């Protein structure tokens, strides 16, 4: 683990040395503008702008934001390793699971951008780990998880389905109504408070007013208006002569001035109409929609996506630039007088350390097949002998992998294919895969028969050794009887009665 942590710190120190300013993307300025204005942004939620607020002032140097985001990622590396170690994952496997978060070039590059991705990942992963930290979910852990996950949801709306997944997890874990309430209370307060605040500003209860526009752009590559049954007003949204590269860059249907949505329906109030058009297309062409979504999800799971032109240029923005400011490379968010202004253009300059980091980024990205392996491992861990001990580990693996893969699928289904939106999977799927491997190994060990041990030899009771009999001693001589006095001669000549019986013949029979 110390090697992984050392590599993570070294890589981020090189970033700070090579790129003295934070990176800029067109989405960055609205986040900063919302922080300066103090009002909710209609395109994306306000959560990230709230975190930017302390850094915003005239001529603000936003490199401090990039530094903060790098430090937050390092803290998440340590927390992720500690979480896996607490859950019984072997140290080498726990260290391997945090390698993508520590060393993935896209992950570290996005930490240097003024974008919400790093904040969303930190809040989501921390919230899920808070729920799965203890054997029995406590009220404090449930409440903390609710605060973190709700904060993630008001940072990026893709976090709302993660909240639903967390509720399902708590029900499966049978945490009890009190702990479920402890989780839902802060969720309700944060989300409800945000909706009320947004309504006070824009007179609509919503987290934003671009969801319909994003979904419109998502379905336009498959919208065959000649075959669709549309109302006359809906047909004004068709664009049969759209540039070919918009197929892989559907976001152009939102931002380009030649898009019908941009030119005819530019207001936030038009968002429901655009969303209704998108739903009509999906309902009439479900097969085409599912094929498009399945194909682009497959790109995330493949070693590389078949991107070219503008789509490849967008993908290259999420890798370390050899020379910031050149085409298809990240540029700097340079200080501007009012924070609402677009920052000055970055002037490319030689950057030897940046060139080294660019070469690193050519190889050091998490391969797509690794995500597929993580999903399979989580499913095997959950479905293989679920009644065996340790199924709680499988539930935690499904929670983490489901959140990571789910955000990836939802971004493709509702927006577009973009490596930027796959960043949560870089952290969540490896953590879940480590838990899945641990559970599979535990089940395999429980099924393995114990080696037969030979029975000990039967112990017979010991027979005492025979002792030699003692030698016979001659019996002591009896004392001789005293001699009787001799009878008179006259008596000895006359036989007695006894002597007569002794010599009688009958006595022999």
Automatic annotation (TrEMBL):
The keyword Transcription does not apply. Residues 460-470, 480-495 have a biased composition (Low complexity). Residues 448-509 are annotated as: Disordered. The keyword Membrane applies. GO terms for molecular function: glycosyltransferase activity. The chain crosses the membrane at residues 59-84, 113-133, 139-170, 177-197, 368-385, 397-417, 423-442. Keywords: Glycosyltransferase, Membrane, Transferase, Transmembrane, Transmembrane helix. This is Dolichyl-phosphate-mannose-protein mannosyltransferase. It comes from Krasilnikovia cinnamomea.
């Amino acid at each position: 683990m110390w090697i992984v942590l050392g590599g993570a710190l070294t890589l981020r120190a090189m970033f700070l040395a090579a790129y003295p300013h934070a990176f800029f993307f067109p989405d960055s300025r609205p986040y900063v503008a919302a922080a300066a204005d103090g009002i909710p942004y209609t395109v994306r939620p306000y959560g990230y702008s709230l975190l930017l607020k302390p850094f915003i002032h005239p001529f603000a140097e936003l490199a401090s934001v990039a530094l903060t985001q790098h430090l937050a990622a390092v803290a998440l590396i340590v927390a992720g390793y500690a979480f896996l170690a607490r859950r019984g994952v072997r140290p080498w496997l726990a260290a391997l699971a945090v390698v993508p978060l520590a060393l993935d070039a896209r992950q570290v590059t996005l930490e240097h951008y003024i974008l919400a991705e790093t904040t969303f990942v930190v809040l989501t992963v921390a919230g899920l780990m808070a729920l799965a930290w203890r054997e029995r979910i406590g009220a404090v852990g449930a409440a903390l998880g609710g605060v973190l996950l709700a904060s993630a949801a008001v940072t990026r709306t893709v976090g709302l389905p993660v909240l639903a997944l967390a509720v399902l997890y708590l029900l499966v874990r049978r945490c009890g109504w009190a702990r479920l309430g402890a989780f839902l209370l802060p969720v309700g307060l944060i989300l409800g408070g945000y909706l009320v605040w947004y309504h006070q500003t824009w007179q609509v209860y919503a987290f934003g007013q671009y969801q319909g526009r994003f979904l419109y752009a998502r379905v336009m590559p498959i919208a065959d208006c000649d075959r669709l049954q549309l109302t006359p007003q809906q047909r004004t949204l068709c664009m049969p002569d759209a540039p070919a590269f918009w197929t892989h860059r559907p976001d152009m249907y939102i931002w380009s001035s030649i898009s019908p949505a941009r030119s005819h329906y530019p207001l936030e109030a038009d968002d429901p109409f655009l969303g209704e058009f998108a739903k009509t297309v999906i309902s009439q062409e479900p097969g085409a929609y599912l094929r498009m979504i399945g194909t682009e999800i497959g790109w995330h799971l493949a070693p590389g996506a078949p991107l070219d032109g503008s789509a490849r240029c967008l993908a290259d923005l999420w890798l370390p630039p050899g020379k910031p400011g050149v085409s298809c490379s990240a540029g700097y968010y340079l200080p501007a007088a009012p924070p609402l202004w677009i920052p000055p253009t970055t002037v490319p300059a030689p950057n030897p350390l940046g060139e080294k980091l660019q070469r690193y980024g050519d190889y050091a990205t998490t391969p797509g097949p690794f995500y597929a392996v993580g999903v399979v491992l989580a499913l095997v861990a959950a479905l293989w002998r679920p009644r065996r001990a340790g199924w709680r580990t499988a539930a935690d693996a499904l929670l983490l992998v489901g959140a990571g893969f789910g955000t990836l699928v939802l971004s493709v289904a509702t927006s577009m294919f973009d490596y930027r939106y796959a960043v949560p999977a870089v952290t969540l799927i490896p953590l879940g895969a480590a838990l899945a491997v641990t559970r599979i190994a535990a089940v395999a060990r429980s099924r393995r028969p114990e080696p037969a041990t030979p029975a000990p030899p039967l112990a017979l009771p010991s027979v005492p050794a025979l002792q030699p009999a003692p030698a016979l001693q001659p019996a002591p001589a009896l004392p001789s009887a005293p001699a009787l006095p001799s009878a008179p001669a006259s008596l000895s000549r006359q036989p007695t009665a006894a002597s007569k019986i002794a010599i009688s013949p009958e006595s022999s029979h």
